[in-house]
Amino acid sequence: MLALGDRDRAASAATYFKTGPGEYGAGDVFAGVRVPVLRKLADGYRGASRPTLTRLLDDEVHEVRLLALIVLVGEFERAPEHERARWVQCYRDAVAAGWVNNWDLVDSSARQILGAWCLTLGDASELESYARRESLWDRRVGIIGTHAFLWVGDASATLAIAPAVVDDRRDLIQKAFGWMLREMGKRVSRGSLTGYLDVHAPQLGRTALSYALEHLDPDERRRYRALR
């Protein structure tokens, strides 16, 4: 990974992903490897064992952890139904260990693994549980995981986690929640979004509301912003 990296790209990524003292990605280490390169590398890890993925997920280099998550998503998606539970548990363990600790890591895995698993079960309660935790990354996993339901036109999971996150003013929670609301309007129905906003727009933070309104017409956007 280090050999494939680029020093300038690594420095830029460290700034972009907020790795300075006190920032959300504080202390994270970047090699400067582009995501398309990681996806190509992931093809060589097909069939990787759980211990192998655990070692990769525990690496200090951000791109190594992202590589492991890309591989984990692939193993989960290709696994027979009766074997998927072990890959879901591998993901839960990674989140609990603090290895899924930046927004790109969450966004490349939460919908594809935990969200898809909950969708198969027809039960979003685990996503709601994650969304109620204090940890920024656990909470984002819960929010982004509901995207799996939205993809099939089901708003129930997103609406279920909404009360847990609507008052959270942390920027990465605001963006994730607003994004899911926007997707609800796009993938479920415009009415599902506007129905939620009619009641809850005054409660939403500015960032979440801005994301949610992106696909509405200018008059609707002005009306909902005026409710705050």
Automatic annotation (TrEMBL):
Coiled-coil intervals: none
Gene3D superfamilies registered for this protein in UniProt: 1.25.10.90
InterPro entries given in the database record: ARM-type_fold, DNA_alkylation
Top-rank taxon: Bacteria
Name used for this protein in its record: DNA alkylation repair protein
Taxon lineage: Bacteria, Bacillati, Actinomycetota, Actinomycetes, Mycobacteriales
